[in-house]
Prior knowledge:
alpha+beta
Amino acid sequence: MNALQALLNRKAKVMSFLVRETLTEADSYEAAVQRLAETPLIAPVYFIVGGANVAEGAVITRDRMKARDIWKLNPTEGRWFVLQTNYDRWEEPPTDDNRRTPATKAMEKFGQAGINASTMFQVLSVPLVLNDRTIHTVTMSAKQPEIYNSLIRQP
């Protein structure tokens, strides 16, 4: 019922259309984050946004009307990565689907200086992060658009 009401509200957008418009029209990282955080949607979503400059990265946790949380990189406070799985960051992940802990350990193992496209793909391939429900894995770089890897996982 909520999705139907949102579709009838001409201001609500489908997530994929909002992403396309944002990539086409936003003229800066901050403008993209603001647009993704504030535009009404037909359903909740997590947006993971990366910019081309230092400290440009955020996870936006959305409900239909606005952001519930914007969690940004902050290297001066030691937050050199932000990590999102299928569960809100302020809640404990379910014991039967805890991808957050092994992903965090893998990121810390590689360290900030050790993260690149190859090691990021390794993080996404760690057991439990990669599980039998993983369908698609993608790594990409806003600063270096030639870095793009997409893999459909086989069960």
